[in-house]
Structure formats: structure tokens, C-alpha cells
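User: Show me a protein chain along with its predicted structure.
Assistant: Here is one chain, sequence first, then C-alpha cells.
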Amino acid sequence: MLEGYGIEKSSVSRQFVAASSHQLRVLCERRLEDLNLVVLMIDGIHFGGQVLVVALGIAEGGEKHVLAVWQGATENTTVVKGLLEDLVDRGLNRQRPYLVVIDGSKALRAGVERVFGEQVEVQRCQIHKRRNVKEYLPMNCQKDYDRRMRNASLELGRR
């Protein structure tokens, strides 16, 4: 029991699951027509032995909107295609040009192209690219690489 309150942990856990399930359902069922999105970011997050594929939208004004969270065993084309088709069903305009930002996954790109066509603008996430490059560097060079890349990003932001 939680100290001195007479509440069992399992009761708190059930209440948390019920509340978060409701919030997730509301998030994943809302309409998207009025968001005026220009960028879609899609990435898989490993969590508890599963992969959660998350879609984040960025509107013209820079506002970020979590659009969907889909569970899968892996970050695969079928999951991404299903997620994107669900977004279209909820009002995402398939004809509007978007910049789609993904990691280097061929499965993500294939899912994006199946929904939006091969002419869709896809950019590789620069954070993922930096992480991939860093993995090939010797350990004694990785901190210097991080510092240099951060400084370069700051300098570009000043221009």
C-alpha cells in the first residue's frame, strides 16, 4: 500500500492506465483539417519491448502537434502506411505538399511514399544523421565531434 494512505499500487496503476488510455484515444481520434500543417515528423521510439511510431506535425506558425502514436513490433512500412492513412482519414490533406522528416529507415520512407507518392519531399533527420556518424568515430573523438556539431548548428542559427 502507498504509505499511510490505504491505497494499493495496483489501484493507482489501473486508474492511471484508464486515464491515459482515454487521453490517447482522444488524441488519436481528433480531426486534423484545421491544423494548417507544413511538416510531418515520423519516428519510432522503443519502449517496453515494443516500438511506438509517433507522428508530429508542425504548422505554418511553428506550433507542434502530436498527431498519432501507433504500436508495432518494429518500425515497418505497414505500420507507417497505416498511421499515415489514418491521418488522411482524419482530415490530413494528401494533396498538400509537406516536408516529411524521418530517420534513415527505408521502411519509413516506403510507407510515406505509398501514401503521398514518390514526389513527396523527404528529409533525413539531422539528429539521427549526427548520431549515425558519431557511432563510426573512435570513443576519444566523440565528445569533440558533439561539441563541433553543436557549435556549427549555433553558428548557422545566427545567420
